[in-house]
Design brief:
Organism: Microbacterium trichothecenolyticum (Aureobacterium trichothecenolyticum)
InterPro entries: AB_hydrolase_fold
Helix content: 25-40%
Number of domains: 1
Distance between the termini: 22 Å
Protein name: Phospholipase/carboxylesterase/thioesterase domain-containing protein
Number of strands: 9
Number of helices: 8
Radius of gyration: 17 Å
Structural class: alpha/beta
């Protein structure tokens, strides 16, 4: 435990890493296929689309690097927003501390939610957003699976975050301990058999009015339940059922959707 906590503390004080736009020519076969899949996304039409993108973001970086996907969208209301997809834990640090910043130590550090210090992973996200050309104060939507969702909640709760968070989408993430402002709508998708969202000890407590915790049956196996593809399928089924029962999409979904008018993916590593 001391080793893990020490590694988490180191995340706050280690030097920032270089962040640069992904060159697809440098990617391995699986990462390159994921990059090509990311480029096919020209419209975000549903919450399930945002969840699906989280899986592509993970696959572009895997354990070797950290990929941060940034899209500029034009919503149904004509307003331009930015959608930032953040990667989940990909490096469990069974060997030397190399590769992805979104590793075991940063997972623990983010849950500490230190308001004075930023993890190396968090600093890389902020640099990627700046390099993508997002002007300070712009409207942003943050989305992520597992640790990616923790990062999304962490940034949304940070009063010094230089952007205007207008929405958060998480799947399989323990985010109830984060003090996200009430003005920000949050969709927190959880499989009832997924133990990861319960790790904060408050997964089934009453949520704030702005948090839509959506519990879904999902796969029976806890291992299969904590899977982004399974979440994508479950969220799509939930949205379909919601539309049939209520005659329309879930509340506030227009904030999260729109035509992709600009797209860039950034990478960094330990």
């Amino acid at each position: 435990m001391g080793f893990i906590l020490g590694g988490a503390a180191q995340n706050f004080i280690q030097n920032s890493t270089d962040v640069e736009e992904i060159d697809p020519a440098t990617l391995g076969t699986e990462a390159h296929e994921a990059w090509k899949d990311s480029q096919k996304v020209t419209h975000l039409s549903s919450l399930a689309d945002l969840v699906s993108v989280n899986g592509t973001t993970d696959a572009m970086g895997a354990a070797n690097s950290t990929a941060i996907d940034v899209k500029k969208i034009k919503g149904p209301d004509g307003i331009e927003r930015w959608v930032v997809s953040l990667p989940s834990t990909q490096d469990w640090q069974l060997g030397p501390d190399a590769g992805a910043l979104n590793d075991r130590d940063s997972n623990v550090a983010l849950m500490a939610d230190n308001p004075l210090l930023r993890t190396a992973y968090e600093r890389a996200v902020l640099e990627a957003m700046s390099d993508a050309g997002i002007p300070p104060g712009s409207d942003v939507v943050l989305t992520g699976f597992s640790q990616g969702g923790i990062m999304a909640a962490n940034l949304a709760a940070d009063r010094s975050f230089p952007y205007n968070t207008v929405g958060v989408v998480t799947n399989g993430s323990p985010i109830d301990s984060f003090d996200i402002p009430r003005k920000i709508p949050v969709y927190a998708f959880q499989h009832v058999t997924d133990i990861v969202p319960t790790l904060d000890g408050s997964a089934y407590d009453e949520t704030a009015p702005n948090v839509h915790r959506v519990l879904m049956s999902g796969p029976v196996s806890p291992l299969d339940a904590h899977n982004n593809k399974a979440y994508t399928d479950s969220v799509a089924a939930w949205e379909k059922q919601y539309a049939e029962e209520h005659g329309g999409p879930p509340p506030g979904v227009d904030v999260f959707t729109g035509e992709v008018v600009d797209h860039s993916v950034f990478t960094t590593h330990e």
